[in-house]
């Protein structure tokens, strides 16, 4: 990182999540919070003032003006999902590298058009799934990859729920069909599906089946749902997401010789430390009154919060392109596409009466 240039990042839109990412850009090495754009200059100015933008940061009253600034290297786009295709494609055309909020599109066809624009213009793309960049995630992956301690993955279960208040359920963009029409599935389900793919080494399942009983609001937007994912080798996974249940962020992964559990995978209980438990080759004691061995607790510490780790990785990739002529990394976009593909499959299964949907990449 020391030999890479500082990357000027502009933010397109003043969504609540942009407050957190603004702070992350300020904390991340080699990242410079260079600009913000809104639909009005007044709103952009107020946002910059409220979120500790540096004195040299630029403020724009239109998204186009920010994208036209030659000093901006990259953009963070936290706009509603229905606007991603337009603005991410235009950002790529303007040669801006893109950190894009999830879900990356309303469907994989939209995202493929964004990818085409990025590929045509040599632009790096990464989605904003922050927990992927927490140091804990790599340590958990090391355990899942350990043939002796974990073995082969057989099943995974993921859950992300929070009890939204009445104002959220009526007015939040995530319940509006013209803004974030995928609702809970696109917002919370994205994390669940990504965690399952992560546990399965990003091997796509062969079949997806939505679980009966999804809840839709009056506008037809999903506010609670679940699904099961099936692989031809016998692996199976399930997830549940909901705006209607108490806060939970769980992953369970079970292998042939071990298991992993955690209850805060998306946002850790504490910003600079995160824990998980593992167990290997466990059984019962002689009287079947306890486990032998007991699960092990692992705590991982980090100086940077996970969102700043995400920005650090993004600017590393962008800096390598800018300074060394490297090609954009394709691993992150591929993960985004697989996640979006499975979001689509779940929605198709719901819309078709919970029929199995064959997944084709």
TrEMBL record:
Residues 7-126 form the Gfo/Idh/MocA-like oxidoreductase N-terminal domain. Belongs to the Gfo/Idh/MocA family. PANTHER family: GFO_IDH_MOCA-LIKE OXIDOREDUCTASE N-TERMINAL DOMAIN-CONTAINING PROTEIN, PTHR46368. Residues 145-260 form the GFO/IDH/MocA-like oxidoreductase domain. It comes from the Eukaryota. This is Gfo/Idh/MocA-like oxidoreductase N-terminal domain-containing protein. One of its GO terms (molecular function) is nucleotide binding. Pfam families: GFO_IDH_MocA, GFO_IDH_MocA_C3.
